[in-house]
Write a structure and sequence with these properties.
Number of strands: 4
Distance between the termini: 49 Å
Order of helices and strands: HHHEHEHEEH
Structural class: alpha+beta
Length: 168
Amino acid sequence: MPWLRVTENIQFGLHHFPRSEQQERTEAVLRKVHLSDFAEALPRQLSGGMAQRVAIARALVTQPDILLLDEPFSALDAFTRAQLQDHLLEIWEGDYPTLLLVTHDVEEALVLSDRIIVLRPYPGRIHRELRVDAPRPRRRSSLEFQRLKEQLIGDLDLSPVVPNLVER
């Protein structure tokens, strides 16, 4: 929320907690996302990557069992995206919440996921489930990573598909 400082954005969903617990949780999550020095900043004073870390902090501060991520890094440049993917894994290793990630980025799916569900359109359906057993951190340049990437791209069948919307 652009009118609230970073701390206030993170605390937004904590109104039912005592003020001291709000402060304690906020400080802990700010340390986790490496934004303690920006606690009083307004969103317009942050980079895109920092703003995304605030969004992640806002979700983590309630200590959820499941964290839903819908294209979390799609608006970021490739370098920042890769950094934040690695950072998300560092955060995840601390508490291990279940992450449910929706992404169109094949590499992102391979870096972050243990299980990938490939969907196909018209009608929307599950095409395949792929288990990723590679140890973390996963090297994007490894042969196994590239093999899995090629397999996923093949599963996606990225050839142009035009649905037949006209009934015969």
